[in-house]
């Protein structure tokens, strides 16, 4: 009997010891809340609010899990232990939807998981080769007068005579663009951009005979320029709609034939020396649907135009290469492409690369001079001067008789407020570019004007023919 009592006592003691030394009870810490994910390039930045329920013992870490199949399989993201309520999950695949959940960890164990959030990482490239200046500066281009659109891009291409509208008062922005229409648009675009159009002699297309002589000439001219190779060696398919893939090819090829304007992006035609042409060699982009494009030239054309800032979908992740171009999108492509070319408004025009900037930067400025037909006017002396605005009433740019005050200074070479032989002369393309340094927290007015050599500026006489811009700097 005594042996039995001893045996029972030992068994009870052993059981008690096992209960004490066994595994810890499940953590009672509650789930994190307010889980938010922000997508990045192959990553997602997660933030959340730490749980308030059961957070004693203190939280020492968080378990972060992700799933690419809607929570069927979860993968733990390995990271250094941290009690910070936020983490960047890396190594993800762009354009894949991921579910994320987070659990708090303390000395008791891992708590309840948060509600899941779904985030899709995407590439976040930025276009690197934008034009510095515009072919259609704001405020200088008149409205085209169409009743069905007020888009600035449509006003731009209408200003240069590239489009005439579907009627005198309508543009039909949602209509598609046929290949024969595109040929006309491209040749008109070439005429104001410095491209040299060919004779329009027969290029061997056998399916354009039913079109007008103007259309046939335009089709043959874009073949001569290398803008088109045709649907086949002997067919152009003039009545087919232009796809967005074809548009990229047309505009990319066109730009290589155009004269670069001030601030247009150029790269070497081949290699690292020699002649240059308008293009980008940056292949980055954010489009997810270029797998639908089989021609390598098409893919590079699309990424080229995106980096030049030409496409109508600069902030989108889809290009839709197989869709038909609309007339609205066509106008956007063409207006943005013109920015890189030598197409500039009629008259003497000065532009800045920015009109409001922080700090004390050197801002790029361009002066262009064109005839009413947009032909460059070269070798003209242009005087430039500037005035920094002051709140003091007596500090002004001009005297009461219209002449410059002592507060006006020259911008580049030459005599102040006088056209002189030492002023800058426009180049063969009718342009002059320079940089101007600006003070902090200032408003600076700049003028460009021209007249006979020796003429002094009189604001009462010359203001209407001068070009004036204002640049503001902030802290």
Give the CA-CA distance, first to last residue. 95 Å
β content, as a range? Answer: 15-25%
Number of strands: 19
Alpha-beta content class: alpha+beta
Our count of helices gives 8
Radius of gyration over all CA atoms, rounded: 33 Å
| Biggest pleated sheet | 6 strands, mixed
What is the mean predicted local confidence, pLDDT?
A: 92
Structural write-up:
Residues 1-25 have low confidence and may be disordered. The chain has three domains: 33-119, Sandwich (Immunoglobulin-like), CATH 2.60.40.10; 152-338, no CATH class; 347-474, Sandwich (Immunoglobulin-like), CATH 2.60.40.10. The protein is flat. The protein has helices spanning 2-21, 152-159, 179-191, 213-224, 244-257, 296-308, 327-338, 459-462; strands at residues 33-40, 43-49, 61-67, 75-76, 86-89, 98-106, 109-113, 117-119, 266-268, 276-278, 347-352, 356-358, 362-370, 381-388, 409-410, 424-425, 431-437, 443-449, 467-474. The chain is of the alpha+beta class and 475 residues long. Helices cover 20% and strands 22% of the residues. Strands 12, 14, 15, 16, 18 and 19 form a six-stranded mixed β-sheet that branches. Strands 3, 4, 6, 7 and 8 form a five-stranded antiparallel β-sheet that branches. It has eight helices and 19 strands. Helix 3 (179-191) packs across helix 4 (213-224) and helix 5 (244-257) crosses helix 6 (296-308). A hairpin with a 7-residue loop joins strand 9 (266-268) and strand 10.
Structural key phrases:
475 residues, single chain, Immunoglobulin-like, disordered N terminus, alpha+beta, 20% helix, flat, 6-stranded mixed beta sheet, 8 helices, 19 strands
């Amino acid at each position: 009997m005594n042996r039995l009592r001893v045996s029972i006592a030992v068994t009870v003691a052993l059981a008690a010891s096992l209960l004490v030394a066994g595994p810890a009870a499940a953590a009672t810490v509650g789930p994190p809340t307010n889980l938010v994910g922000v997508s990045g390039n192959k990553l997602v930045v997660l933030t959340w609010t730490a749980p308030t329920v059961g957070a004693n013992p203190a939280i020492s870490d968080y378990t972060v899990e992700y799933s690419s199949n809607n929570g069927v399989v979860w993968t733990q993201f390995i990271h250094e232990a941290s009690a910070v309520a936020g983490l960047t999950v890396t190594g993800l695949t762009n354009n894949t939807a991921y579910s994320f959940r987070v659990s708090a960890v303390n000395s008791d164990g891992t708590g309840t998981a948060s509600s899941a959030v779904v985030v899709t990482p995407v590439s976040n490239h930025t276009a690197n080769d934008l034009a510095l200046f515009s072919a259609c500066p704001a405020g200088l281009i008149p409205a085209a007068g169409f009743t069905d659109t007020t888009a600035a891009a449509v006003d731009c291409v209408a200003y240069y005579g590239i489009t005439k509208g579907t009627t005198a008062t309508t543009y039909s922005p949602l209509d598609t663009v046929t290949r024969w229409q595109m040929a006309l648009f491209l040749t008109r675009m070439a005429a104001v951009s410095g491209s040299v159009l060919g004779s329009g002699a027969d290029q061997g297309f056998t399916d354009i005979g039913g079109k007008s002589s103007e259309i046939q000439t335009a089709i043959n001219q874009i073949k001569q320029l290398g803008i088109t190779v045709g649907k086949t060696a002997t067919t152009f398919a003039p009545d087919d709609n232009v796809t967005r893939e074809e548009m990229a090819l047309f505009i990319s090829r066109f730009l290589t034939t155009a004269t670069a304007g001030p601030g247009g992006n150029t790269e070497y035609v081949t290699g690292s020396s020699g002649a240059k042409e308008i293009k980008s060699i940056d292949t980055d982009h954010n489009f997810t649907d270029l797998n639908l494009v089989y021609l390598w030239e098409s893919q590079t054309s699309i990424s080229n135009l995106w980096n030049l800032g030409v496409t109508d979908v600069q902030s989108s992740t889809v290009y839709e290469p197989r869709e038909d171009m609309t007339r609205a999108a066509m106008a956007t492509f063409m207006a943005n492409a013109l920015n890189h070319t030598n197409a500039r408004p009629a008259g003497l025009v000065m532009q800045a690369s920015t009109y409001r900037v922080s700090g004390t930067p050197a801002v790029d400025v361009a002066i262009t001079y064109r005839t009413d037909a947009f032909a460059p006017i070269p070798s003209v002396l242009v005087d430039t001067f500037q005035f920094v605005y002051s709140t003091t009433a007596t500090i002004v740019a001009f005297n009461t008789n219209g002449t410059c005050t002592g507060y006006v200074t020259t911008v580049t070479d030459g005599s102040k407020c006088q056209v002189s032989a030492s002023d800058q002369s426009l180049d063969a393309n009718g342009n002059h570019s320079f940089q101007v340094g600006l003070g902090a927290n200032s408003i600076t007015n700049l003028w460009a004007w021209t007249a006979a050599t020796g003429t002094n500026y009189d604001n009462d006489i010359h203001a209407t023919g001068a070009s004036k811009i204002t640049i503001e700097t902030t802290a």
